[in-house]
Write a structure and sequence with these properties.
It is found in: Cytoplasm. One of its GO terms (cellular component) is cytoplasm. InterPro entries: Mur-like_cat_sf, Mur_ligase_C, Mur_ligase_C_dom_sf, Mur_ligase_cen, Mur_ligase_N, MurE/MurF_N, UDP-N-AcMur-Glu-dNH2Pim_ligase. The strands form six sheets. An eight-stranded mixed beta sheet has the order 11-10-9-12-8-13-14-15, with helices on both faces. Strands 19-20-24-21-22-23 form a six-stranded mixed beta sheet, sandwiched between helices. The protein is globular and about 75 Å long. By secondary structure, it is α/β, with parallel strands linked by helices. Helix 12 runs parallel beside helix 13. The chain has 16 helices and 26 strands. The N and C termini lie far apart (about 65 Å). The chain is about 30% helix and about 20% strand. The protein has three domains: about 100 residues, MurE/MurF, N-terminal domain (Udp-n-acetylmuramoylalanyl-d-glutamate--2,6- Diaminopimelate Ligase, Chain: A, domain 1, 3-Layer(aba) Sandwich), CATH 3.40.1390; about 230 residues, Mur-like, catalytic domain (UDP-N-acetylmuramoyl-L-alanine:D-glutamate ligase, 3-Layer(aba) Sandwich), CATH 3.40.1190.10; about 150 residues, Alpha-Beta Complex (Protein-Tyrosine Phosphatase, Chain A). The longest helix is centred in the middle third of the chain and has 16 residues.
Length: about 500
Amino acid sequence: MTKTCSQLFDGFEHTVLGNANEEVAGLAYSSGKVSPGDAFFCIVGLKVDGHSFAQDAIDHGAKVIVCERKVYLADATDVTEIIVSDTRKAMAHAAARFYDDPSRSFSLVGITGTNGKTTTTYLVEQIAKSAGKRTGVIGTVGIRVGADSFKAEHTTPESSDLQKTFAQMREARADVVAMEVSSHALDLLRTWETSFAVTAFSNLTQDHLDYHHTFEAYFEAKALLFSKDYPAKRVVCIDDKWGKELLRRCNANDDNVVSTGFDPSAQIHPVEVTYAPTHTELLLDVRGQRVRFSYPLVGKFNVSNVMLAFGIALQLGIPVESIARALEDAPQVPGRLERVSVPNDGGVSVFVDYAHTPDALEKAMRSIANITEGRTIVVFGCGGNRDSAKRSIMGKEALQADFAVVTSDNPRNEDPLAIIEDIVQGMGSDPSAYAVEPDRRAAIALAIAHAKPGDSILVAGKGHEDYQLVGDQVLSFDDRVVAAEELKRAFGAEQGEA
């Protein structure tokens, strides 16, 4: 499959230096991944300017260079340059044209917000499958196209990768695709030229302020998915002020919008909720119609996720009764309050959760406390090279547990001890409230040793991740696997084993 430069940039303001009918065989934004005949996009990144790699791209076989300024190259006699004002937007536009606008071939659901995106995509997938639809999922845990699944580098892939994935979903004849849409993706135009059937908002809490700097800027990035650039039906959780503001904007734009939340003014809100250790029973008011069902997920925050998914399914045209039936078989989402199962746990329940923001940590701990007879213990850390302002807040939130163990998360290129020091700044000086153990395995073992029958342990921060980022190393580490190993070490592999 090839497209000419004229076809790729039709309708996009550009200047051609060279052959406008040059055939393009593929799209690349990393010079090391260029194949012969590709167009290379000189993306101006946060740390690296792609214009510096134009010659390397040509050396790898690029025939077209898309840039924001003319690049002077040593060997470019037969290379076409496309000059644009924004290479990110140009790549998104070209990618959609290269793959023939694949997102128009199915109902695409875009879900944004700080917490709950992954779980909601899984719930939407479950509902759509139960309604007889072919589905796809794109998000933090990975990408699923039909029966195939693979990992993704970003929550929302770069535009050329994203459109290629959409094309694969079209080939798999997907009917409904649920996608997590990050604030970075919206700000960096990865979703530009993507057609959505439904866009949904979960909540906004502190995260990524190292990138966005202020809550207002963070919100405005999320709100882009509800702007006129992305026309769609809307679903908005109104349990925080940001959701209420987004609902106001949607109403002002005469959008078709469904509101959800614990707020009784929401079109979808709970009338009764019963929390149990293995499931939740819910009586839901859905636009005046009451529906009662139970589902095998726990915690108040999952009620929010269920309501958001319910609203999305309504906007997709699925009947209320069908949605409720589908949710009764809701799947366990990897690393989202996932209980670690071993033959003998000594009466200690261990849950692994991706909670890596203050709000998510607080909600996960509260959910576990609601289903625990004994004490709650939390093991957590904070990632390096990320929003450092939330570290002390995370420490303060962790004190809601009966005991906390502060450890390493993904320190990346920061000193793990310096990150831990930032965390404990918010935890006071009571030595009985928490312990510090930088080694994550040892920290999990310490929490298990501290626990008694009837207690619950939350291992937070990494969830589904099966690695730990330390410096430039990617180490094998899965909280679920490690917790299972440490439970077996503490209590024996079989009931009654010494």
